[in-house]
Design brief:
Shape: globular
Helix content: 55-70%
CATH topology of the largest domain: Tetracycline Repressor, domain 2
Largest sheet: none
Number of domains: 2
CATH superfamily of the largest domain: Tetracycline Repressor, domain 2
Number of helices: 10
Structural class: mainly alpha
Number of strands: 0
Oligomer: single chain
Distance between the termini: 96 Å
Length: 220
């Protein structure tokens, strides 16, 4: 058989990727939506703690660096995936940047300012309703709140003089705020539902402050 000794032999490039190729969508809006959709499935299946940028990237069939490109933190992606109108982690971060003596009032003030804007109050009620009716939603939100809100608040309280049981104090303060949300924006009981925000800051702020750093706080 006649052959050309100088004809190149067919070779397989060593740089060719094996297995499923990562997609690289060209439309940024579609790429972002794809990641958010995959994140929603991952959070539902694995919970907030179990889902990671890597597992979300794998579910979306994109490179993990692309997930980091659109979302700086997992909390950002979680809030986007559930359509959260309020970022409690950012509220707490803003409050913790101020003095300990004003934590209660600042928490109430910042929360009310956020919820009174547009339809945020009704949207957060809808989210709470979903969490109360579905355990998988409750588990996701609970893990998010514990990791991104309550632990950070409790860590700050550990340094406050006389503030024993910081985890309990943080959850007590949270329960006060959730009750305020439900009554003001959910069942809308008067006169609380139409009380000016600054009046509520003066009335509820000291109660939240006591939960955080007041004494005595004992169990049993």
């Amino acid at each position: 058989m006649d052959s050309n000794p100088e004809a190149p032999s067919p070779v397989v490039s060593a740089s060719r990727p094996r297995g499923r190729r990562r997609s690289t969508p060209t439309d940024p809006a579609n790429t972002r939506d794809l990641i958010v959709s995959a994140a929603g499935r991952e959070f539902a299946n694995r919970g907030y703690d179990g889902a990671s940028f890597r597992s979300i990237a794998r579910a979306a069939n994109v490179d993990p660096a692309l997930v980091h490109h659109y979302f700086a933190e997992k909390a950002d992606l979680f809030a986007e995936s559930i359509g959260a109108p309020v970022r409690p982690d950012r509220i707490v971060a803003a409050v913790l940047s101020g003095p300990d003596s004003a934590m209660g009032e600042n928490l109430v003030r910042t929360l009310l300012a956020t919820l009174d804007e547009g339809r945020n109050g009704q949207r957060i009620i809808g989210l709470l309703h979903t969490a109360l009716g579905h355990e998988f939603a409750a588990a996701m939100i609970r893990q998010f709140l514990v990791r991104e809100v309550l632990h950070k608040l409790a860590s700050r309280l550990e340094a406050a003089p006389g503030a024993a049981d910081p985890e309990l104090r943080a959850t007590l303060a949270a329960s006060q705020l959730v009750g305020l949300i439900m009554v003001r924006y959910g069942i809308r009981v008067e006169p609380l539902s139409t009380t000016p925000p600054e009046d509520l800051v003066r009335l509820v702020g000291p109660v939240v402050q006591w939960h955080l750093v007041g004494t005595p706080l004992t169990r049993g």
